[in-house]
Amino acid sequence: MSESHTAEHTHHELGFIRKYIFSTDHKIIGIQYMITAMAMAVVGGFLSMLMRYQLAWPTTLSPNMAKLFPTAWAGGIMAPEFYISLVTMHGTIMVFFLFTAVLTGGFGNFLIPLQIGARDMAFPFLNALSYWIFLVSCVVIFSALFVQTGAPMGGWTSYAPLSALPAAAPGQGTGVTLWITAIALFSASGLMGGLNYITTILTMRTRGLSMMRLPLTQWSLLVTSVLGLLAFPVLLGAAILLTFDRVGGTSFFVPAGVIMNGLPVDHSGGHPLLWQHLFWFFGHPEVYIVVLPAMGMASDILSTFCRKPIFSYRMMVYSMVAIAALSFIVWGHHMFVSGMNPFLGSVFTLTTLLIAVPSAVKTFNWLGTVWGARIRFTAAGLFSIGFVSMFVSGGLSGIFLGTSAADIQLQDTYFVVAHFHLVMAIAPLFAAFGGIYFWFPKMFGRFMNETLGKAHFWLSFIGAYCVFFPMHILGIGGQMRRIYDPTQYLFLQAQQPVNVFITLAAFVLGASQLIFLLNFFISIFAGKRALDNNPWQATGLEWTVPCPTGHGNFGEELPVVHRWPFDYSVPGEKEDFIPQTVPATATAKH
Amino acid sequence: MADGTGPGRITLSGVVLAGLLLVLIIVSLYFFIAQPFWFPKLASEHGAKIDSLFMAVLVVSGIAFILVQGALGYFVARYGESGTERAEYWHDNPKAEAFLLILTAVILTVLVFMGQRVWASIYFADAPKNATIIQVTGEQFAWNFHYAGPDGQFGRTDTKLITGTNPIGLDRSDPNAKDDVLSIGVMHAPVGKPVRVQLRSKDVIHSFFLPNFRMKQDAVPGMAIEVWFTPTLTGQYEVACAELCGLGHYRMKAAFTVDESQDAFNKWLEEAGKQ
Ligand code: HEM
Ligand SMILES: [Cu+2]
Ligand SMILES: [Cu+2]
C-alpha cells in the first residue's frame, strides 16, 4: 500500500493497532462503522425472526424455545412483555444502530474524502471519537437486552407517559434508562460525524470540483448531515427532559391525576403530546436521514451500471434539498388521531402530500435513467434497480397514510408497518447492499463473489416483497401493530394464514442474508483480487486510486476535476465512460 | 458500431426481473380487486366516506404503481448490455420534467381536497343533540364505559376516589351519580343514533379502535377528547386498543353491541345499572 503514500506521510509507518483499531483514517473508520452496524443488524434481524415466529403461531407451545429462553419463553409460551421488548429493540437497533450508522457513518466516512479528492476528513480525531462513542452506544443498547426486569418496552418511539413512568411496564425501569443513555450517546456521536461531513464537503473539495459536479452520493450525505445536525439535538433534548421526568421529579410529559397500578403518581402539569411533537420533529427528518443517502448511492450506482448519465441531475439535487426542508414540517402526520387539534391534521395532510412531489420527481428520474440504458446486471446494479422498485412500492402507500381521513383506520396497523419497512427499511437496505458490492473492491482490494451476490439479490427481492407486501392486507383487515397475539381478536382470525405466510417468507429472507454475510467475510480474505483501479469502469474520483486505497488517498498531487461524474456513453468517445479527471480537451470527437 | 444506439439486448436477468415485477403487479391487482381479505364489515355512517376515499386513493396510487413498476420491468427487460453498443445519451428534458411535476402536484392537490372534505365532516361537525353520550376511560388493560343513566346527568368523578371496585372514581354521594351506569369491557348503543364518546385515560396512552366503525382515537391522560359516530348495523363488534400501552396491550379489548332499538338499549342499561 505504501506506493500511494504521500510525501508527508511516508516517513511514519503506523503499527497494526494505530492503523486498524485506533485509526483516524476515514476509510478504516468507515469500515469499522460498517462492520459494527452489521453486527447490530444480525441482532436486530434475529429479534425480528422471533417476533415473526410468535405472530404466526401465537398459541402453539414450543418446548424448544423454552430451552433457549428459559424465562422469556417459560413453559413454551412467549411472555407478552418479551414480545414488546423485541419490537422495541428491533426497531431501535434497525433505525439507529444499523441504518443511520451504516449509511452516514459507514459510507459517509469511507466515501466523502475519496469522492471529493481530499486526503481525509476535516477533523480526523473527532471522526475517530464519533466512532468510539457510537461503539459505546451499541454496547449500551445491546446490554439492554439482558436486563433482569426486561428490555425497554416503549417501542422505538418511546411515547410518554409509558416511557416516563418506570412503573408502567417491567422494562420501563433500567431498560428505558439504558435506552435513553444509548440514544443520547448515539445522538452525540452523530452530531460529531455530521459536523465533520458538512465541513469536509463544503471546504475540502479538490480543484475543479464545483458543487454541481458532485456525485449524488455526496449531495445526499451533505443534505443528510444538515438534517442530522438540526434534528438530533431535538431528540437529545427530549431524552434529557424525559430523564428529568423519570428521576428528577419534573413533569414535562406527565399530566396530573395519573393512576398507575392503582396508585396516584406524583406529577402534574406535563403533557404527553409534547413528547410526540418533539420525537416526531426529530423522527420524520430521521426517516430521510436514512432514505436520502440511500437515494444518492442508488442513483450513482444505477447510472454506472446503466452506462447512462443520471436523468436530470439538477432536479435530483433540488428535490433532495426540497425533501430535506419539507421533512421538518410534516411530523404531525404521525399524530392525526393523537388528540392534536384536528385543524392541524388538515395542515399536515397538505405538507405531507407536498413532500410526495419531490419524491415522485426522483422516481421519474430513475426511470428516465434506465430508459434507453445498456444495463450491466451485476449484483450492485441489480440492488440499485431493486431499490427503485421498493421505494416506489413503499412510497405510494404513504399517500394513504398522509391523507388524514384515510389514516384514521390505518394508523397503528400493519399498513403502517408495511409502508415504513418498504420505504425506510428494505429500500435503504437494498441501496446499502448495492453500495457494499460496488465499493467492496475499493475497501478491501478484492471482489465479493458475483454469483453469490446475485443469488442474494434474487432471494432478497422475492423475500422482501413476500414479507412486506401482504402486510398491507393485514393492516386493511385491521391488525394492530405491536400486538403479541392477533388471534385474540375475532375480526383478525380469518387472516391468520397471511401471518403464517409472512413468517415463512421472513425465514427465507432472513436465511438469505447469511449468504451475504458469508460472502462478505470470506471475500475480505479470499475474494478475487481487484488489480485494476477502476474495475466497474466508473467515473468518480475514488476510482482513480488503487484498491484498496492507501493512507492519504491520493498520490503526491491531488486530482483535478474537469467534468461531472455522469459522462457515460458520450457519443463519439472511445470508451463509454469518462472519468472526472479527464480534461475536456482530451476527449476529441472523431 | 462503437457508438450506435441499436436495440439493447434481452438478457436473462432483465427478463427475470421484469417477470417478477409483472407477478407483483398481477398479484396485487388480485388482492386489491378480488379482496379475499379486506376491511372489517362496515357498520357506521361516516365509515362509508372513509372507505370511498380509500378506494379513490387506491385507484390513483394503483395506476401509478402499475405504470412505474411496469415501465421499470419493461426497461430492464429491453435494455440489457449488448457488446460495444452504447446507451442513449440524454440527461435532461425540462418539458417532460415540468409536465410530470405539475401532473403529480395536481393529482395530489385533488386528493388533499377530497381527503379534507371527509376529515372536516368527521372532525369539524358537532354531534347531533340526540346523541347517546358515553364516557370511555382507558386503563392498563381495560376499557370502562360510563353512562349517565335516565337523568341524563353524569355524576362527579374524582381520581382520589378510585379503588378496585370504583375504577373511574365515581362520587356516589353526588345525586347525579345515583342512576349512573358503569360497565367494564362491555359497551352498548342503539342503532341509527349518533354516539358521542368522551375519551380519557387513567395511566398511559391508549387508542380507542372500533375497526368496523372506521373509528380510532387516542385516549391521552390529562386530556378529554370527544369523537362521535353513528352505528348503522346491529350486531356484536370488538373494541381494540391500537396504541402500545404495556404488556397487556394485545388483550385490551371490549365488546360492543349495537342494539336494534332505543328500547333494547334502555333495557340493557337498566340491567347493567342493577349490578
Ligand atoms: C428481515 C427483515 C425484517 C423483518 C422480518 C421485520 C419484522 C418486523 C416486525 C414483525 C415488527 C413488529 C411489528 C409489530 O408487532 O408492531 C417490526 C417492527 C419494526 N421494524 Fe422491522 N423487520 C425487518 C427489518 C427491518 C429493518 C431493516 C428495519 C430498519 C429500519 C426495521 C425497522 C422496524 C421498525 C422501526 C419497527 C417498529 C418498531 C416499533 O413498533 O417500535 N425492520 N419489524
Ligand atoms: Cu413521518
Ligand atoms: Cu394498548
Features:
heterodimer, A: 590 residues, two-stranded antiparallel ribbon, globular, B: 275 residues, 5-stranded mixed sheet, binds protoporphyrin IX containing FE, binds copper (II) ion
Question: What overall form of chain A do the CA principal axes indicate?
Answer: globular
Instruction: Detail the poorly predicted runs of chain A.
Output: 1-11
Largest sheet of chain B: 5 strands, mixed
Most extensive interface between two protein chains, with residue counts: A-B, 120 and 105 residues
| Spatial separation of the terminal alpha carbons of chain A | 39 Å
Structural class of chain B: alpha+beta
Radius of gyration of chain B from CA coordinates:
28 Å
Q: What fraction strand of chain B?
A: 15-25%
Strand content of chain A: under 5%
Mean pLDDT of chain B: 94
The largest sheet of chain A, given as strand count, sense and whether it forms a barrel, is: 2 strands, antiparallel
Task: Indicate the structural class of chain A.
Answer: mainly alpha
Q: Helix and strand succession of chain A?
A: HHHHHHHEEHHHHHHHHHH
- Percent of residues in helices of chain B comes to 25-40%
Name the overall outline of chain B: elongated
**In oligomeric terms, what are we looking at?**
heterodimer
Number of contiguous helices of chain A: 17
Strand arrangement, largest sheet of chain A? 1-2
Note the total helix count of chain B. 4
Report low-confidence residues of chain B grouped into runs of 5 or more: none
